[in-house]
């Protein structure tokens, strides 16, 4: 059995040697073959044509696009100069742009009642929701349009919430604020 493998291996080895030697000897005597480094790339152009019977007559494609213009850069807070709007006017502080300010939730921890004190800069829809730790809505305390100015709301939550930690989500206009409370 060992001899069979040896003779088979020898036949394959002799055959491979013959093929390699034959290809080398043929290329050595062929003077028209150039090495790969000296071959020149042939330039060929291929044109693809549409041979369908019902092909569209207008084959040109026109694309109109507006070039990209980057927005005006504003300086980083704390750097020299005052940020300016597109009209060149000094930009107001970011606190002035907020609709909801001065939000206070008390008492914490909450027992029976919860109080909210906040200031609204302009008339807006106000939504106050209680969420659990997973983000599930437990109760909606308030959802109505409120006028600008100081607001004070009091809600009885003893029947709505059990002991634990909750989040209060305020949405005034498009501005959300989330506060954490604990209920006894």
Automatic annotation (TrEMBL):
Domain of life of the organism encoding this protein: Bacteria
Domain Secretion system C-terminal sorting, first and last residues per copy: 105-182
Signal peptide span: 1-28
UniProt keyword list: Signal
Pfam families: Por_Secre_tail
Positions of region (Disordered): 40-60, 74-94
Protein name stated in the entry: T9SS type A sorting domain-containing protein
Organism: Hufsiella ginkgonis
